[in-house]
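A further point concerns the way the authors explain their paired sequence and structure data. The central task, working out the structure tokens from the amino acid sequence alone, is never made concrete. I therefore recommend that a typical entry be quoted early in the introduction. An entry of this sort, consisting of the sequence and the corresponding backbone structure tokens, reads as follows:
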Amino acid sequence: MTEIQAFAREFLRDPLNVAALVPSFAPLCRQAAAPLPETGDPVVLDLGAGTGQVTDVIQEKLGGRGRHIAVEFNPRMAAILAERHPKVEVLCDDAHAVVERLLAEGVRSDLTVSGLPWLATAPRRGRSIFEPLARLAAPGGAVTQLAHAWIRFFPDARKVQRNLEANFEEVVVTRTVLANIPPAVVYVARRPRVR
């Protein structure tokens, strides 16, 4: 079974927790990983990593530098991810729980790439995942969130953007990446509003 087939199978099993029918294509992944520092030993958090398309781009850009933590809730997809990327810290866990653990350990992320579905970014216990991600961000760090272009205009998507804007001073939406199925955008958030 190919990775695309495995991804599609998992989407059909659990469409609310798997964000897309097929994995993100390389142009979208490059857009999401664009804020990754070119020097030093950055810490990168890869949320909703799926079978590893964004992970591929991050690993290429890191070139053996830094620390790369990939989080995937689906155990079958996490197993594929761990097999493809033995040098990446792959965690099969809830993104919220991992972020809270990293904060407790004092970790700071230079880049967090989120491929989480909208439901996973919605507020839990009164706050969205973007609030702890803002606290997790290193000085000069960024958070990127992938989104299907067509969903941006729905009320839930507007809530996601408002949640980002409530936690970051700068939120920019990239141009639509038409070379993705379906076409998608990346929200790029910088300068956390740490409370």
Q: What stands out?
A: The two ends are 47 Å apart (CA to CA). The mean pLDDT is 87. Helices lie at 3-13, 26-33, 53-62, 75-84, 95-105, 118-121, 130-136, 155-167. DSSP finds eight helices and seven strands in the chain.
